[in-house]
Specification:
By secondary structure, this protein is mostly beta strands. About 0% of the residues lie in helices and about 45% in strands. The protein is built from 1 helix and 46 strands. The strands form 13 sheets. Strands 23, 25, 26, 27, 28 and 29 form a 6-stranded mixed beta sheet that branches. A hairpin with a 7-residue loop joins strand 8 and strand 9.
Length: about 625
């Protein structure tokens, strides 16, 4: 209930009027004042009602007139002209001038007060934020009618004290049980420093650039590191200055980083994810800073007064244990126009990785290097072997392969197959068939580090010489053996030759037949093997390489092997440890300049010789 009181400035002779004013004041008013103008004999009785809540603007003032000659006019300092004025605020003095019909005036003033039950609040900062979310703010309701409700902004918390605050200004709205509200704010201070951070994003297309629909990855451990006791970055004793776990949106931030030299390391489950290519595109806000091999950024300096740098991000994509070698396919053939070549099939199986293989065959009528603009994918060609169907022009084929779940085909067969199509009127085409040399030929790697070449012909009516030719690219061939024909014209004739000194890697063989009388020459189809001797069992691919080089061995060593990487000037660039029993290792070539490099393979023991792998960095 609003309190009531009144003040009489002069005793009146009109007791009836006074009694009415007293009763009205007790029932309706919070305060009252009596004003008299002795000259005009006009008496004013002013009263007010309190403002319920601060800034609720529900106070009022009124005036009663005794004496003078009616009618009266009223002029308030609020510009109101009635005897009662509403919607007033507390703490203000309101003045009225009353004029009767004879022009006589009287002046009186009264103040509107705030109800004792009005709401007053006081905010305070109980603890500064420091270098992180450590601040505490509190609100106290000094007046008003409990219970109270609280709403803080921008946190949305609803208690009288709020915790874990960053530096900044916080606002609170308090409401009491009467519905009175009050708003106040408090500033939470913090320490100076540079904030570092950004984003770990799921790089769906693996291009190393954030795209609009590529969201963040949560629960990634991110470390801020500096040099340890040895004073050298990227060593085992590096000091962990801070760490964060990315939130549901992939964001992380290191607060109040002091001046110094640092690097950031992103830690992912390498069985589930791979890092994207580093520094792609021209926008530092959108590229991936993480090294594709170990997830570290380049080192950087933080200096006094440096602005925040929120551009250290990492792209990752779902890992797939993909093939590392695409195998070889066969066979190159010569057919006549409109004929169907034999089914293209695997010669040396692809290797590496795990999971179900997926295939994509491509063809070209122009040939040339792959990939290139002349190559086109063949629809519905997800098969290990491929039947081209009738061909009318010379066509080239290649097969790409990936493991199920891998997003792109990045591994292709080591060779192309050429189906040479001759016109129907060609000298070698008789009734649509090639009158050529088509023996049954095979090449097999033997246990004694040799390759056995075998071929069988039909009955021989002429005298022939057979030349075994060898190539590493299926283009340039050298004769490595020559055998005289058996010349049995009644049964098949079988031949074999052992290659006792095969070269490492891909070897392609063919048989050239020379007819002694006419001196005509024809060739067999191609066969190939992929030979790796035990003493030179390390291979490197892809070669040329752009980012990551894979070094593999088919003969794991019993002891650790140190591989040394040299540039073309003979300068040692890096030493890579190949653990005992290990079959493959990745070498990051991303930050190396374009040029020729050599990987030194040590002998290991007296039975194995040392040698070098040559690698071209694009």
């Amino acid at each position: 209930m609003k309190q009531s009181n009144f003040t009489i400035l002069r005793k009146l002779s009109q007791q009836i009027v006074f009694s009415f004013f007293f009763i009205a004041t007790m029932l309706f008013c919070n305060s009252s004042i009596f004003a008299n103008n002795a000259t005009a004999n006009i008496d004013l009785f002013l009263s007010s009602t309190q403002e319920t809540c601060l800034n609720s603007n529900d106070g009022s003032v009124s005036v009663l007139v005794a004496g003078g000659i009616p009618a009266y006019t009223y002029e308030w300092n609020t510009d109101d002209t009635t005897n009662v004025v509403y919607n007033l605020t507390s703490g203000t003095t309101y003045t009225v001038t009353v004029t009767d019909s004879q022009g006589e005036t009287a002046v009186g003033s009264i103040e509107v007060s705030l109800s004792p039950e009005g709401l007053w609040i006081m905010t305070s900062t109980d603890q500064d934020a420091g270098c992180g979310p450590n601040g505490i703010a509190h609100i106290s309701a000094m007046t008003g009618v409990p219970p109270y409700t609280y709403l803080w902004s921008p946190t949305g918390q609803t208690t009288d004290s709020i915790f874990n605050l960053y530096p900044g200004e916080y606002y609170v709205t308090v409401t009491d049980s009467n519905g009175c509200t009050a708003i106040d704010s408090t500033e939470v201070a913090g320490e100076d420093g540079t904030s570092l951070g950004d984003f770990v994003f799921r790089d769906a297309n693996q291009d190393g650039i954030q795209q609009p629909l590529e969201g963040g990855v949560s629960n990634v451990l991110v470390k801020l590191l500096s040099a340890g006791a040895d004073g050298i970055l990227y060593t085992d004793d590096d000091f962990q200055e801070d760490w964060e776990i990315t939130g549901s949106n992939g964001r992380y931030i290191f607060e109040c980083v002091e001046p110094g030299i640092y690097y950031i390391k992103f830690n992912i489950d390498t069985d589930s994810y791979n890092f994207s290519p580093q520094y792609q595109g021209n926008d530092d806000e959108l590229d991936s800073n993480a090294d594709p091999v170990d997830g570290t950024t380049e080192s950087f300096s933080v200096f006094e007064g440096m602005p925040d740098d929120l551009s250290y991000d990492a792209g990752i994509y779902d890992a797939c244990d993909d093939f590392t070698y695409g195998g070889t396919i066969g066979q190159s053939q010569i057919i006549c126009e409109g004929e169907e070549p034999e089914t293209l099939h695997t010669i040396i199986p692809p290797s590496g990785g795990s999971g179900t293989p997926e295939y994509l065959w491509l063809s070209s009528i122009a040939g040339g290097s792959f990939p290139g603009p002349t190559w086109f994918p063949i629809p519905n060609s997800n098969t290990e072997n491929y039947d081209p169907g009738p061909l009318y022009v010379t066509t080239y084929f290649i097969r790409c392969i990936r493991r199920e779940g891998c997003p792109t085909f990045i591994i292709e067969s080591e060779n192309q197959v050429t189906i040479t199509v001759l016109p129907e009127d060609h000298d070698y085409c008789i009734d649509g068939n090639i009158n050529g040399f088509d023996p049954e030929i095979s090449a097999e790697i033997m246990a004694a580090k040799e390759v056995m070449i075998e071929w069988t012909t039909g009955p021989e009516n002429e005298l022939y010489y057979y030349y075994v030719e060898r190539s590493i690219d299926a283009v340039n061939f050298d004769a490595v053996a020559v055998l005289r024909g058996i010349a049995n014209n009644s049964i098949s004739n079988s031949y074999h030759w052992m290659d006792t000194d095969p070269t490492n890697g891909r070897i392609v063989y063919r048989i050239k037949r020379l007819e002694l009388i006419s001196e005509s020459i024809v060739y067999s189809k191609l066969v190939e093997v992929f030979f790796v001797s035990e003493d030179q069992s390390f291979m490197a691919h892809p070669n040329p390489v752009l980012n990551v080089l894979m070094v593999e061995t088919s003969h794991p060593r019993a002891k650790n092997t140190s591989l040394s990487l040299y540039n073309a000037m003979g300068q040692l660039i890096d030493v890579i440890e190949f653990e005992a029993g290990e079959t493959k290792i990745k070498i990051n070539m991303n930050n190396l300049v374009t040029g020729l490099y050599f990987i030194h393979i040590p002998s290991g023991d007296k039975e194995l010789k040392e040698y070098y792998l040559k690698v071209l960095k694009e």
